[in-house]
Amino acid sequence: MELIEQELIDLLKKGDADAFEKVFKTYFKNLHAYALYILKNSESAREVIQQVFYKIWEKRVSLNIHTSMKAYLYKSVYNECMLQLKKKKNKEAYLSYILKQDANKLAQGASEKIETTDLEIRLQKALNELPEQCRTIFQLNRFEGLKYHEIASQMSLSLKTIENQMGKALKRLRIALAEFLPLIIYLLWQV
Length: 191
Hints:
By secondary structure, the chain is an all-alpha fold.
C-alpha cells in the first residue's frame, strides 16, 4: 500500500470529509460499472455503491484495510452485490411459495375479497389521476398495442420522452394498485 493511500485511510479514520469525497469521486464510476456487471441493473448498482460508502463512513474509526483501497472497495462492492442477489433470490422464492400456497384460497376467496370490477374501478381511477400526456401514452401502449417508436411518431415526441412517461405511469400504477398484486398475478397465471 502506498504512503499516500495510507494517509488517505488515516484521514478517513479521523472523519475527514474531504478524504471521503476524494475516495468516492475517484472510485465511484468504476465501482458502479463493476456492480452493474454483476447486478444487471443500474439503480441497484448505484444503491450498492451508496451502501458500501455509507458503511465505510459509519465504520471509519475502525476501518481496517490490509490491501489497497481499490481492492478493499471492489471486495466490499462484490460482497454487497452478493448480499443483494441473495435477498432478491430469497424474496422471489418466498413470493413463489406464498403464491403456490394461496392459489386455491385466492381462487375461492377472490370473489368474496375483491371482485374484478373493484380492480377495474381502481385502475380507471389511477389512470385518471395520471397527467394527461402520461395517461395517453400509457393507453396507446397498453390498450392499443402501439410500440414506443409508433407513439413517439404519432404524438411528435422523442422516444426518450415516451420511455420516461411510461416509467412514470407504471410506477404510479404500481403504487395505486399494490393491494391488488396477488389478484393480478393470479389472473395472469390463468391466461
